[in-house]
Amino acid sequence: MSEKVPIGADHAGFDLKERLKAELIELGYDPVDVGTYSTDSVDYPDYAKQVAEQVANGTATRGVLLCGTGLGMSYTANRFPGVRAAVAWTPEIAELSRRHNDANVLVLPARFIEEDAGVEILRRWLTVPFDGGRHGRRVAKIEAD
Fold it and tell me: What is the value of pTM for the model shown?
């Protein structure tokens, strides 16, 4: 059974979301598209909440969000317990978000990256492990009450 990865976007991220869904399938994942389903204007929190909720409640171990800057999606997703949503605009940032912060939601700024860059960022983020060690201690401090 392939890993389910919820993915959501607002209107600004719709086109790149569609490309990343295809990439997830090609890589053997099972994308769960929570919307939006067109470029018609929508409110990003509606989609961020759906992805973050699945990660927070353990239905999924990680998810992907896209909006114009990535910021609104990350603000919303990070309000959920246990969610560590990271905005990544390069593969290196995506890698460090995994290695150092154990990011479990990737957020892409769709208006500021090319499609090929988005694919490479996703690939890197999916394959890089969490380093643990001193970084584990720091992540534990984030999660502490």
Answer: 0.97
What is the domain range of residue 129?
4-143
Annotated catalytic residue within 7, 12, 55, 67: 67
User: What pLDDT sits at residue 145?
Assistant: 66
Give the total number of structural domains in the chain: 1
Of 4, 19, 79, 100, which is the active-site residue? 100
d(CA 65, CA 32): 12
Q: What is the mean pLDDT of residues 56-70?
A: 98
Question: CATH no. for residue 110?
Answer: 3.40.1400.10
Mark whether 100 is an active-site residue.
yes
| φ/ψ (deg, to 5) at 74 | -70, -40
Q: 1 pLDDT band (50/70/90 cuts)?
A: confident
